[in-house]
Amino acid sequence: PFLISCEGIRGSGGTPDEEPTTTKTNKVFKGKVSQVNSELGEITINGVNISIAGSEIYRNSIPMTIDNIRAGQIVSVETRSFNSKKGKYAALKIEIEDQLKGPIESIDLNASTITILAQTVHITSGTSFTQKSLKTLKVNYYLAVFAFRNDAGVLEATLIEIIREDFQANKDTVKIAGEVLEVNVDSGNIVVEGVEIQLDVEEVKDIKVGDALSLNGLEVSEGGANILTTSATDTTIVSEVKSYDVDREVVLEGLPQKIV
What we know:
The model is unreliable at about 1-25 and about 240-260 (pLDDT under 50). By secondary structure, this protein is mainly β. The longest helix has 4 residues, at about 200-205. The protein is built from 1 helix and 23 strands. The chain has one helix at about 200-205, and strands at about 1-5, 15, 20-25, 25-35, 40-45, 50, 55-60, 60-65, 75-85, 90-95, 100-110, 115, 120, 130, 140-150, 155-165, 175-185, 190, 195-200, 210-220, 225-230, 235, 260. The protein starts with a strand and ends with a strand. It is globular and about 55 Å long. Helix content is about 0%, strand content about 50%. A hairpin with a 6-residue loop joins strand 20 (about 210-220) and strand 21. Strands 11, 12, 13, 14, 15, 16, 17, 18, 19, 20 and 21 form an 11-stranded mixed β-sheet that branches. A 5-stranded mixed barrel has the order 4-5-6-10-9.
């Protein structure tokens, strides 16, 4: 089944109100984790301190803990309140959102890029690795990529996770996030960032060209390298963040208290 998120990306550069008040309106932050403090039960996203004690933490619908959150990950955090005396929000729910998962198809050391599912991933000086490095990566390594997609369509990686050194098409699933370029309501197929995905008529009836989707649990089809099919895993549809300035962009649901 699909989980549909109707919210859009509405604003950037917002900062918490400096007045000593408590806001109870829920807001959703999306951004890069810059710091994790397990002892205090806090994380920092784009300079915003968030208390995550008692919050629900998920990654691809699987429950996680604070030990699964690390610097460089892209997360979506629903907060329930902000107390400016303490200078932090209180998290209600956290989604750890890798933007791409699959095998490396090619590596270009000169351009500092790798290709996964026909998606170009740019490795920068700010990209972290759980292990290895760009120079030690090899074709068919199974990776999870945390990144922001820039206006040119290139994924600027913030964190590369090595899942395994050998992708196995008969058992491993893949994930892709991006803009829907084509929808065929008769066949049930869609094209996301140049990759064709075979769904069915019921699954695509609410999907439109221009939607920003994240689809997890896909399988590589035997019919072609760029054709993916659904598996038993739930496929989740969410909004996607685009930013060059990943350290300072803050995306909020609702009205910001102050914009400076």
